[in-house]
C-alpha cells in the first residue's frame, strides 16, 4: 500500500531530523510492505524567499489532498516578521487538538522514571488567536479567545481518549481565579463534558500550582487537559521528565487532516551540526503510522528505536551520548534489521 504524505522539512534542525526520520520510515515500510510517496514543501522564511509566500499555495493544496503531513519545526521570528506558520496551519486545517504523549523510553535514565502522561492541548484559540493591537503608543492589548465550542470539543477529545485507552484521570488546567470569564468558560465546559464519563475521574488544578505539582510528583497526573498557552508551556516542562525536547512527539489533529510534529522548535543553537536528536520527530512519525492505520510499520520503528535506547551505546548529546543525528539514525536502521 502506498501512502501520500506531505513533508515539511522545516528550519534549523528540521531538515536533519526529517531526513533521518524519512530514511527510517522508508526502511520500516520496505520491510512491512508499505510505501511512502513524500510530497516535500517549504514553509516559512525559506518558502518566502522562493515563492513570496510564507505558506505556498502548493503546500495548502498538498495537505488538503493528502490529509496527513509530517512536519519539522519552523522558525517564527520574535516581535515583528510574519505570523507563526504553526498557528496558521492549525487554524487553516482546524487542527483543534494537540496530542502530546510524555513517556519514558526504556533504558534511558532520567530524574523521573516511568512517567506516562498525556497532554491534550486546545490548538486554535486562547491568546494564540493572534489578536493583538496597539491601543496608543505604550499600550498594547492581546485578546484571549475562549469559546464553548472550542472548549467542549477539546474536553470531549481528552475524555474520549481517556475512555478508549483506559486512562483514569483528567486534570483540567486553568487560571479561572484570575481569568474568571475566559478560563471560567473553559472549566465549565470541561465539567459538563466530564459528567458523561463517570469512569474517568475529573480534577481541576490552577496552572501555577500544577507546575509545582508536576515537578514534585508527575505520577499524580494522567491526562492534562489545557488551553493553548498553558499546554504549550507545560509540554516543554513535561518533556524534561523523559529526557527533554529531543524526545517528545506530538500530533495536531482535526476531523479532516492531521499534522504530526515534535514538541520542540528549530533549535538554532545546534542546527546544521549533526547534533539534533531525531527521536521526537520519529515518535511523531510513529503516531502518524498508527493514524494511517499501519500499526505493523509503527511497531517496527518503535521497537528499533527502543532497542537503541535499551543498548544505550549510540545516543545523541542531549540525552548524554556522543553520537550525531546520522549515526543515531543508522543505529535505529540497524536495530530494525536485527531479527
Ligand atoms: P527549541 O525547542 O528550538 O529549543 C530549545 C532547546 O532545546 C535548545 O537548547 C535546543 O537545542 C534543544 N532542542 C530542541 N530540540 C532538540 C532536539 N531534537 N535534539 C536536541 N536538542 C533539542 O526552542 P527555541 O530555541 O525557543 O525556539 C527556536 C525556534 O523554534 C523559534 O523560532 C520558535 O518560534 C520555533 N518553534 C517552532 C515550533 C514548531 O515549528 N512546531 C515549536 C517551538 C518553537
Ligand atoms: Mg511550544
UniProtKB/TrEMBL annotation:
rRNA-binding listed as a keyword: no
SUPFAM superfamilies found in the cross-reference section: Isocitrate/Isopropylmalate dehydrogenase-like
Keyword Oxidoreductase: yes
Record-annotated Isopropylmalate dehydrogenase-like domain positions: 4-332
Pfam families listed in its UniProt record: Iso_dh
Any single biological process term in GO: isocitrate metabolic process
GO molecular function, one term: NAD binding
Sorted UniProt keywords: Oxidoreductase
Top-rank taxon, per record: Bacteria
Record family assignment: Belongs to the isocitrate and isopropylmalate dehydrogenases family.
Name of the featured protein: Isocitrate dehydrogenase (NAD+)
Organism: Edaphobacter aggregans
Highest classification ranks of the organism: Bacteria, Pseudomonadati, Acidobacteriota, Terriglobia, Terriglobales
Amino acid at each position: 500500500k502506498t501512502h501520500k504524505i506531505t513533508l515539511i522539512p522545516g528550519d534549523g534542525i528540521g531538515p536533519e531530523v526529517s531526513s533521518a526520520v524519512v530514511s527510517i520510515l522508508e526502511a520500516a515500510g520496505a520491510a512491512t510492505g508499505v510505501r511512502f510517496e513524500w510530497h516535500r514543501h517549504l514553509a516559512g522564511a525559506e518558502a518566502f524567499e522562493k515563492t513570496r509566500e510564507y505558506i505556498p499555495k502548493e503546500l495548502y493544496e498538498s495537505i488538503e489532498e493528502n490529509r496527513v503531513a509530517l512536519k519539522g519545526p519552523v522558525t517564527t521570528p520574535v516581535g515583528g516578521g510574519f505570523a507563526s506558520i504553526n498557528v496558521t496551519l492549525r487554524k487553516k486545517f482546524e487542527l483543534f487538538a494537540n496530542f502530546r504523549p510524555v513517556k519514558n523510553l526504556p533504558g534511558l535514565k532520567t530524574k523521573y522514571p516511568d512517567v506516562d502522561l498525556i497532554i491534550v492541548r486546545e490548538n486554535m484559540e486562547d491568546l494564540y488567536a493572534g489578536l493583538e493591537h496597539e491601543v496608543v503608543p505604550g499600550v498594547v492589548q492581546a485578546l484571549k479567545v475562549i469559546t464553548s465550542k472550542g472548549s467542549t470539543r477539546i474536553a470531549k477529545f481528552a475524555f474520549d481518549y481517556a475512555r478508549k485507552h483506559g486512562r483514569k484521570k483528567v486534570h483540567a488546567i486553568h487560571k479561572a481565579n484570575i481569568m474568571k470569564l475566559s478560563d471560567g468558560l473553559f472549566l465549565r465546559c470541561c465539567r459538563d463534558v466530564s459528567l458523561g464519563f463517570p469512569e474517568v475521574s475529573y480534577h481541576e488544578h490552577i496552572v501555577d500550582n500544577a507546575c509545582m505539582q508536576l515537578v514534585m510528583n508527575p505520577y499524580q497526573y494522567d491526562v492534562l487537559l489545557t488551553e493553548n498557552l498553558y499546554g504549550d508551556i507545560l509540554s516543554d516542562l513535561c518533556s524534561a521528565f523523559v529526557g527533554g525536547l529531543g524526545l517528545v512527539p506530538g500530533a495536531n489533529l482535526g476531523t479532516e487532516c492531521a499534522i504530526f510534529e515534535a514538541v520542540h522548535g528549530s533549535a538554532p543553537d545546534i542546527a546544521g551540526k549533526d547534533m539534533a536528536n531525531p527521536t521526537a520527530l520519529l515518535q511523531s512519525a510513529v503516531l502518524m503510522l498508527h493514524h494511517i492505520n499501519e500499526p505493523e510499520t509503527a511497531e517496527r520503528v518503535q521497537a528499533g528505536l527502543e532497542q537503541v535506547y535499551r543498548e544505550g551505546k549510540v545516543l545523541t548529546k542531549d540525552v548524554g551520548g556522543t553520537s550525531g543525528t546520522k549515526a543515531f539514525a543508522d543505529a535505529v536502521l540497524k536495530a530494525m534489521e536485527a531479527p
